[in-house]
Amino acid sequence: MSEKILGQKAGREVSAGEIVVTEVDYVFAHDASGPLTLDQLKTLNISKPAHPDRTILILDHAVPSPNSTISNNQARLRKWAKETGSRFSEAGEGICHQVMAENYASPGQVVLGTDSHTVTAGALGAFATGMGATDIAVAIGLGKTWLRVPESIKIEVEGALQPGVYAKDVILTAIGKLGVEGANYKALEFVGETISKMRIDERLTLSNMAVEAGAKVGLISSDATTKKYLESRGRGKNFQQIAPDKNAEYEREMTIEAENVEPTVAFPDNVDNVKPVSEAAGLEMQQVFIGSCTNGRLQDLQIAAKILKGKHVSPNIRLIVTPASRETLILAMQDGTIEALVQAGASVTPPGCGVCFGALGGVPADGERILTTTNRNFLGRTGNPNAGTYLASPATAAATALKGALTDPRRLA
Amino acid sequence: MKTLNGRAWKFGDMVTTDHICPGRYFHLRTNLPELAKHTLEDARADYAKNVKPGDIVVAGRNFGMGSSREHAPVVIKVSGASAVVAKSFARIFYRNAVNIGLPVVICDTSRIEDGDELSIDLETGKLIDMTKKFEIKFAPMPAAMMGILSEGGLVPYIQKHGDLKI
Ligand code: SF4
């Protein structure tokens, strides 16, 4: 699929390993890397994006801003967007990857961002990848970038997932098998019956974590589900079908039987350090976080609320919930999801990155364990190198919050 | 490009961008000299305090795994290191390093020990461990990236060539 998308852009056939210079459809920078991006544009003496309507500045990492330095950075991005006529997403609108999925990314596009999880939009059939500030400055300024066409690894998922098992468990299982460097420089392609049946929410979770195996992009074919999603978001005309050829060549193929996937947890400090939850059940946690670009969407919050409704989290647990976007928050308020979570003891924070990367709050104490629905459990990721970060699905997170210790959500039924 | 000479700072496998440039110092990202005081803090707290200009970061597999924060290679450069040598690199880190003009070398680092004096020739693809007296050959970087690196990074490259032509 990478060759197809990049070939379509280049107007010729391209093959893996080749370096191509390609037009960029959307490029975004967020408040963590935006200032450096603007510095680089300044050094390049470029005052305006090549395509302001395809350039988006998104404030999401520190929402609301905790200090004047960050406020000043955010003000600078806000001002720059206004002056150049670029698009802008205000603090509180949502996490960059959710904003891109909700409003911009479409099949066959090349989407770049100053964030490694830009790969999330691969779930919509876009060649979406994260880069550093300098690359993004060049993409903003010149409207193009260079890319090495990646080789592809196929992850085929067949069959039905057990109740209580979700996309997050599938991707943690896959990364456990691939290893954190198993897809370095490569494209992951998620195919098979299980994936075709997944909603866009769940597909975004899969693509989001492709980078945790080192991948450059995590692609999913665009299909009727994608079309419906785009139509519901007013982008129906952007639909095009992107699917692998029948005889597509893969460097490696992996099959996962959906019915064998278990609720899975990644232990510190690497994402491939996975175990079935059932093997580690009972491990005490002190904090649970449900949110992030991986699992902060409506369906994720609904799954957690279903488990917690009418109950209260363990007295030993602090539960923090952060919706991925304002739209998610509104929908979750309207259907009672937020109320159920707050009644159960959750602190709900404004849409943004929140607890995910340890800069804004919800930092665990020394020796504590935090179970999160995010994508990274590196040492110090949640703000304290003396605490342990564990990754799991929203269902496992909610079940764990309820019991105060790692709990297999299938055991609650 | 001249030969790089410096003392090795040895690290293990899977050094992440959070080890190199912890997210908790997010607020320092617009103050690079201050941010650089925390370089590699969560991997080796002694690094930032004692690194000397020209020293060389030596690591195992998949160095720079994780975030796309360009601040990770930037702080290594600002801290004074002249290059990073590792068995392998994470994709975005490698690209970012080249873009900001920080030389990155892929070779088998197993025999290099902390404190060894190293000498690296990027063009011929040769690393000499002067302390232990052995030589390691490595494949020089792909031409497209070498072109960017030898201009000092992508910004000077574009300033000179006026465009992105690979
Ligand atoms: S939610 Fe976490 S992983 Fe996602 S963009 Fe924000 S900081 Fe990065």
Structure description:
The complex is a heterodimer of chains A (413) and B (166). With 413 residues, chain A is of the alpha/beta class. In chain A, 32% of the residues lie in helices and 19% in strands. A five-stranded parallel beta sheet of chain A has the order 4-3-2-5-6, with helices on one face. In chain A, strands 16-15-14-17-18 form a five-stranded parallel beta sheet. A four-stranded parallel beta sheet of chain A has the order 10-9-8-11. In chain A, α6 runs parallel beside α8 and α12 packs across α14. With 166 residues, chain B is of the alpha/beta class. Helices cover 28% and strands 19% of the residues of chain B. In chain B, β5 and β6 form a beta hairpin. Classes of the chains: A alpha/beta (413), B alpha/beta (166). At the A-B interface, α2, α3, α5 and β7 of A face α1, α4, α5 and α7 of B. The structure holds iron/sulfur cluster. Iron/sulfur cluster binds at residues 61, 95-97, 115, 117, 292-293, 353, 356-357, 374-375 of chain A.
